[in-house]
Amino acid sequence: MTVDTIAPPSAKHRMPIPDYVPAPLVRDIDIYDLDGIEEGVHEAWKKVQQPDTPPLVWTPFTGGHWIATRGTLIDEIYRSPDRFSSRVIWVPREAGEAYDMVPTKMDPPEHTPYRKAIDKGLNLAQIRKVESDVRAVAIDLIEGFAAQGHCDFARDFANIFPVKVFLALAGLPMEDAAGLNALAKEMTRPSGNTPEEQGRSLREANAGFFAYVAPIIAQRRGGTGTDLITQMVNSEINGAPMPEDKMLGLVSLLLLGGLDTVVNFLSFMMIYLARHPETVEEMIADPMKLQRGVEEMFRRFAVVSDARYVVEDMEYYGTQLRAGDLILLPTALHGLDDSQHDDPMKVDLSRRNVAHSTFAQGPHRCAGMHLARMEVLVMLQEWLARIPHFALEEGAAPVYHAGIVSAVENIPLVWKV
């Protein structure tokens, strides 16, 4: 069963409410099937964040877990691995326990040398070296349909541009993208209507990634190539060669991160811009405002909702937590928190003190953030240079999917040639 055919709420698997969870903190929230999602993923998450919503709520869906509803908590939990561990970062728990990629499921100090291995190829200096190549990919794609006066943005651009860039950095063929994308979707939006079914789906997808990368790792160990995979698998961990099982997890994580997040972020962003031509005009009139406004875009359109594992019994923001509880961190709710941002649903290119957790925080802050920022800036610059005025086709109905990484498809854009 796919996310598209997920069971209605009445048939969802509900967990009993633990004795220590007060009834006023219980909310029926399913990360994979948000109420009101037909209006948009971010709009649906924002409905969770009402003025009287407690900072922590409990849902009986997806195995039963807490949800942090305010930016302050989301930021703080990410930065506190001593209290909130990464040993289980997916919900339901069965999916999180099946997830076997590193270093995202590690805590410091074990996590640190693996993160350094990733940063070798994704640090800001390295990313600046490939900007002209990234720009060439964007230009080639946009000019391929600009004269047509229309495109399906998700299909014709967002699903190709960051994937093509990333596979080139990893030294992998573009023809592998379809199979890898299918695995990525099962990782971030695992199919099934019970925690056990979702756990099986994720375990199979995780195994699929490992099977794909194993021969590539074997080929590139000991190599001198400059691609991301060669750099990582030949990194030392605490003065010794990286263990093979950790190589599988590390390279798989690299591909998962590069294939699903920026793809969906771009699509959410372009739906908004197609509906708000005044924001597009601001970008065109002031290139510096466009450049500074990229961070505002990341605030507004966060797509990741991962979790943390409570290390020990504690009281947190007046709520009793038990060791082993999971807390979901919907990054969208940090950027959309009206206690931190005025009119948070609006993209304000002049906004100051933009606060968000779109790239997470603390030791697990996204290693690919420099690449993501550059991809978004380059894409906007080259798109607006060729297609400055565009809109959603009349009657367009984007299809939204919620999950560990939110997604959207069916984005028909039109413009005058």
TrEMBL record:
Q: Which PANTHER family match?
A: P450, PUTATIVE (EUROFUNG)-RELATED (PTHR46696)
Under InterPro entries, the record lists:
Cyt_P450, Cyt_P450_B, Cyt_P450_sf
Instruction: List the residue ranges forming a coiled coil, or say none.
Output: none
Looking up CDD domains in the UniProt record yields:
P450cam-like
- What Gene3D superfamilies does this protein map onto? Cytochrome P450
Residues spanning the membrane? none
Q: Name one Pfam family in it.
A: p450
> What is this protein called in UniProt?
Cytochrome P450 127A1
Q: Which family does it belong to?
A: Belongs to the cytochrome P450 family.
